[in-house]
Amino acid sequence: MEVNKEITELYLSSSSSSPIPTFTTRWWSKDTVAMVTGANKGIGFSLVNQLAQLGLTVILTARDVEKGNRAVELLKSHGLHVHFYRLDVSDPASIKTFALWFQKKFGVLDILINNAAVSFNDIYENSVDHAEIVIKTNFYGVKLLTETLLPMFRRSDSISRILNISSRLGSINKMRNPKMKEMLLNEGLSAQEIEGMVNLFLENVRDGTWKNQGWPEIWTDYAVSKLALNAYSRVLAKQYEDFGLISVNCFCPGFTQTSMTSGKGTHTAEDAAEIGARLALLPPGELPTGKFYIGFNPGVISKL
Ligand SMILES: NC(=O)c1ccc[n+]([C@@H]2O[C@H](COP(=O)([O-])OP(=O)(O)OC[C@H]3O[C@@H](n4cnc5c(N)ncnc54)[C@H](OP(=O)(O)O)[C@@H]3O)[C@@H](O)[C@H]2O)c1
């Protein structure tokens, strides 16, 4: 406990040029339950590490049991205890099994960090050969997991929170199709319309017309998946806005040195996760909803 206190103080005193606030209040306790998807490596692993250091109860999930166990052991060797359960977000059966285990073991959830994602392109490549799995993992996986876990959120005064790790490649300004852009900007946007958008994209991929339809130009399948994720986060944030007990925000960690970028990037996964952890742990009085935090040093905060 003493170690956790020291770490919190370290965070509190760290200065940053980012508009993302630093910790001001330690509102959480060891009974605060947080889970992170795709956490055997990269930003997800570092998020688990930071949340565990800060003294929360953390569930590390990964689609591969061996990799997940290895990550847990690594944390253990540094004196950190986290829980592990297998979760493949692209597989509805795995989501169901996870949710049953979670409900039995913990019952309530305070923080959900949807981090797991895939991209099959090298940095300057733009193949859509794996578009189906990209959309299934990065959009439908997050949507189904979130909807399955929504009834388990504690909804206390400390406010349950969902932080979706997204990408600036999924910003609305990357969409060049005017009809789609108008739909995405519409205040009355629905989850069904977002699904319609991704299904149209997949249809364009199948019939080979995707290059001429105004979809985002860089990492097109990944960008569409994150566009859909951002749009869905906005719809969800709006849905829960009036109740005030669940907040939904997105965070783009910027160009980070992980497997997804073949180790290239301007900063480490730890740097990105430090900001992610701060966002996930904003004090209830300072926690917004429906926001998109883009990068850091300096970062931008926009409406989703
Ligand atoms: N790195 C960047 O520059 C960057 C920039 C913007 C946004 N992001 C976002 O940051 C998040 C973390 O990415 P990262 O950079 O840390 O990449 P990463 O090192 O490749 O990590 C991705 C994680 O997601 C897991 N995953 C993939 N498919 C999954 C599935 N179906 N079910 C469960 N887990 C699955 C991977 O597991 P395996 O080890 O089994 O593959 C891995 O643990 C992603 O949402 C990504 O889109 C990254």
UniProtKB/TrEMBL annotation:
<dbReference type="GO" id="GO:0016616">
    <property type="term" value="F:oxidoreductase activity, acting on the CH-OH group of donors, NAD or NADP as acceptor"/>
</dbReference>
<dbReference type="GO" id="GO:0016020">
    <property type="term" value="C:membrane"/>
</dbReference>
<keyword id="KW-0560">Oxidoreductase</keyword>
<keyword id="KW-0521">NADP</keyword>
<dbReference type="InterPro" id="IPR036291">
    <property type="entry name" value="NAD(P)-bd_dom_sf"/>
</dbReference>
<dbReference type="InterPro" id="IPR002347">
    <property type="entry name" value="SDR_fam"/>
</dbReference>
<comment type="similarity">
    <text>Belongs to the short-chain dehydrogenases/reductases (SDR) family.</text>
</comment>
<protein>
    <recommendedName>
        <fullName>Short-chain dehydrogenase/reductase</fullName>
        <ecNumber>1.1.1.-</ecNumber>
    </recommendedName>
</protein>
<dbReference type="InterPro" id="IPR045313">
    <property type="entry name" value="CBR1-like"/>
</dbReference>
<dbReference type="Pfam" id="PF00106">
    <property type="entry name" value="adh_short"/>
</dbReference>
